[in-house]
């Protein structure tokens, strides 16, 4: 109805999308003693010039006289045809002709019986990975989570739960075998079911009490689900057994969940996707931008176990034993395992991994127990950490021993093409491990239990450069640990920008840093953990270290992010290219962390070619820029010499040129530091000592080793000339 045709009328566009709510008087022309009520109107009524608001009594009389005008449309499944609803995703993944699961024709859900407590069901699902599905009746559907380790039997455990698509209410009675080739293929049984009492249902927290079937394994238990990452399907949650019941009485521990004697994960087709595909991102909500690779990309990380039992996917707790030689899904930590604490942090060879992994992981598992019900107002301790030189820093815990420089040397990646990375990934196992390559600077973090200290790849202390990370409680847990990650600055589109980071990484004066912080905030993207609670986690396989990392960073401040992991190299490359990111890192999930080693267990695949270079000369500009830097002469170390690699004359901002003048002027020398400089390039060069490292983007190397179409990207103060090597 056009606005000009609505003279003297009010047109109300009203939507009610929750059957549990009642809306009275959504609009009134003026205040009245009696409220009007919302009711469906017919098209004939809308054309009536005498159309009036209805009082509540008039609505009831009207229903008795003409019935409900919406009856003809229907609302619930089986009545109204619809292409969209809470069950849309469920129906799209299944065909009634190929699976015994209930597949409704309509995605709108059903109506619960009035006056009854809502239902729940826990189903044991032997898919490609064993897990337990927790389903709670809500809004005409079963809201569902996949729980790799089942319902926690103790208040000291927190189990990962990954939200899946909503299921129809009929699924509460389903048990059977889903055929190979179908979504979630494998055997499913009902572990327990019953009714539940709801205390709270919020977007990020659900508190409820399950009342299982008589004689069932569950009993009566009060639980809480806390969302830790993402939204909707594939979001990750913690499932925690509360210390007390709803009346405040202590809750006893339950029986540990064990797999039943039936078809296991091998019953699913080899390579079939499991129903659990959690995203690995933490959404940043800091004052800057949401990182593209962490918020918009929704990769999954699927890990398989060599045993027939389950392998947990994720973040909430540390699996007691997940090394590749494990033959059992359950593991009871040995009392003796904690007696021999790991004190050596030497680079482990591959042979040492299986021998030490389970022992270290047992200790970490016992030490890392998250308290959901802890006092959130706990302070971070007294000021004055003597190790940091920062008067605002908190003192470390008693007995804390800082790691040595040798323990902080980062593992380095080898450059590879996409084809080599695909082939190597297939050799490593069924599932790939691919991470986004972030366009920032490497930073090793030392968390002493109260404050974070940062070291550059070179070993230099960069703690004072990033106060938003180091002058606050980073909330990385009560135990000391050493973490590996990349510091990045995001552009207006949420993408890491190395040129933007230059305005932070090159500052050293506190006043300049404080002034630039609001303009250029940084994030610390974590991807590894080197030690935890005094245990050398570097000896563990990467997928085991990932569990510990996610648990450590579970409650971290917003600028500290654990980005996603992809299980397909091509998906990772496509996503990183689509969002304009630098490339991907393809890693061996079974490999240890080899400190200070450039290893082929980590492969970096870039979309555009970049190269670190050593600056050894300046060519002045021409005409009006005769006293300015026109271009830089750069080289790449080759044995004991630095081989000339060409000139770089574009990509400089005014601030970058000013910084280069400041750094290079004191390094002026009469000696050419390069091998192989053409006479034309050397004719008017001003030489400098080769102490400054930068990074360029380029098209290709010529046969003579010269960079074609080189463009300046920025300084690399975190690198020394000795670390620079040609990226073939």
From TrEMBL:
Which regions are flagged for Basic and acidic residues bias? 360-377
Q: Say if the entry is tagged with keyword Protease.
A: no
Show the taxonomic lineage: Bacteria, Bacillati, Actinomycetota, Actinomycetes, Micrococcales
Provide any one GO MF term from the record. Answer: ATP binding
Q: What processes does the entry annotate via GO biological process terms?
A: DNA recombination; DNA repair
Q: State the residue spans of region: Disordered.
A: 246-407
Keyword set includes Aminoacyl-tRNA synthetase = no
Domain ATP-dependent DNA ligase family profile per the UniProt entry, residue ranges: 515-616
Q: InterPro entries from the xrefs?
A: ATP-dep_DNA_ligase (IPR050191), DNA_ligase_ATP-dep_C (IPR012309), DNA_ligase_ATP-dep_cent (IPR012310), DNA_ligase_ATP-dep_CS (IPR016059), LigD_ligase_dom (IPR014146), LigD_PE_domain (IPR014144), LigD_pol_dom (IPR014145), NA-bd_OB-fold (IPR012340)
The record's similarity note reads: In the C-terminal section; belongs to the ATP-dependent DNA ligase family.
Among Pfam families, the record links this protein to: DNA_ligase_A_C, DNA_ligase_A_M, LigD_N, LigD_Prim-Pol
What protein does this entry describe? DNA ligase (ATP)
Tell me which cofactor or cofactors this protein depends on. Mn(2+)
Q: What is its EC number?
A: 6.5.1.1
Q: Output compositional bias ranges, type Low complexity.
A: 258-270, 328-343, 391-401
Q: What class of enzyme is it?
A: ligase
As its record notes, the protein acts as a catalyst of: ATP + (deoxyribonucleotide)n-3'-hydroxyl + 5'-phospho-(deoxyribonucleotide)m = (deoxyribonucleotide)n+m + AMP + diphosphate
